[in-house]
Write a structure and sequence with these properties.
Elements: H1 10-28, H2 31-44, H3 50-63, H4 69-94, H5 98-104, E1 105-108, H6 110-116, E2 122-126, H7 132-141, E3 146-150, H8 156-166, E4 172-175, H9 182-191, E5 195-199, E6 209-213, E7 216-220, H10 223-231, E8 235-242, E9 248-252, H11 264-284, H12 299-308
Parallel strand pairs: 1-9, 2-5, 2-8, 3-4, 3-5
Antiparallel strand pairs: 6-7, 8-9
Length: about 325
């Protein structure tokens, strides 16, 4: 880990001030109007990131070879605008009372989580769909005693502010890229019979397993499967959708139970099972996923590894 990566700089502070000003402004706007403005502004920003947008279109075309160029472009555009929606919703929700929050974000299947909380503990299994940040807030608002495993932002001022907002209704954050042995921190938390939220659909920089996702090899962290198998706890997939009226609905699915034997093969296969859930979601609504995140940046490396270790291909 670079010793300078997370150091504070004057430029970092200016970025932080800009974010704070943006948040204050958008918190003052009416809920739906703030989303409209944020989507429009985010749509314009594609001109500043042409290479990233082209890569999004490339990845979408690879994932959905049956779609036309026009359909691919529209999915990419809608996915990009969804980032604007996420930002406005997040700012607005963090400035609401718990009562008002529940008018804009609802959780279904809550009883499934409540049965695990305080008895076995469990892992909340979520991906970069629709508005995953809203569910993180909703978990606390609806009474879940949870922590999240997240990546620390390079800008320490922004990271501190994001951490504050994510846990504004209570909660805790463990960092997978800036904390000694996060696996054991997560284990200690789960041993208390609490809930841990993990975003699984992001590129793993180390300690990865190579799993096909939408037909291409990607590097995934096995931490969800490792924790579930090691501690024999349920994993609760969560699907977030946005209704036509803007209401966010976070649906907690039936728990997935891990294999009973702790070994590398079971870890890979259970990771594949977890990933398959979000492949299904992506086919249902491809524009809801965060295509701007380059999940396949290590695809060539993964293919070479699996050619040398065919027994690990799942």
């Amino acid at each position: 880990m670079s010793q300078t990566r997370f150091q504070k700089t004057a430029f970092h502070y200016l970025q932080y001030l800009a974010l704070k000003a943006f948040c204050v402004l958008f918190a003052l706007l009416p809920y739906r109007f703030s989303i409209f403005i944020s989507r429009m502004l985010m749509g314009w920003t594609t001109i500043f990131f042409p290479n990233r947008f082209k890569r999004m279109e490339y990845d979408i075309a690879r994932a959905f070879p049956d779609k036309s160029a026009q359909q691919v472009h529209q999915i990419a555009k809608d996915s990009w605008r969804n980032m604007g929606t996420i930002l406005a919703e997040f700012i607005q929700l963090t400035h609401m009372s718990r009562e008002n929050f529940k008018k804009h974000c609802r959780v279904t299947g809550l009883e499934k989580i409540q049965q695990a909380q305080g008895t076995t503990g469990g892992i909340i299994h979520i991906g970069h769909f629709t508005n995953w940040e809203a569910f993180g807030l909703a978990a606390s608002v609806y009474g879940m005693d949870k922590a999240v495993l997240a990546l620390r932002a390079d800008n320490p001022y922004i990271d501190q502010e994001m951490n504050r907002l994510r846990n504004i209704f209570t909660g805790r954050t463990f960092y997978s890229n800036h904390q000694d042995k996060p696996f054991f921190a997560c284990m200690r938390w789960i041993k208390k019979k609490k809930l841990l939220g993990i975003l699984i659909d992001q590129n793993a920089g180390s300690s990865q397993v190579w799993i096909p996702f939408m037909g291409r090899i990607a590097a995934f962290s096995p931490i969800t499967a490792l924790l579930a198998i090691k501690m024999q706890i349920p994993v609760f997939p969560v699907q977030v959708r946005r209704e036509k009226d803007g209401l966010l609905v976070c649906e907690i699915k039936d728990p997935l139970l891990p294999p009973t034997e702790y070994n590398a093969e079971n870890t890979r296969r259970f990771t594949r099972q977890l990933i398959a859930f979000y492949e299904f979601c992506l086919h249902e609504d491809p524009a809801s996923w965060l295509w701007a995140h380059n999940l396949w940046k290590r695809e060539a490396e993964g293919e070479r590894y699996l050619q040398a270790h065919p027994e690990e291909r799942v």
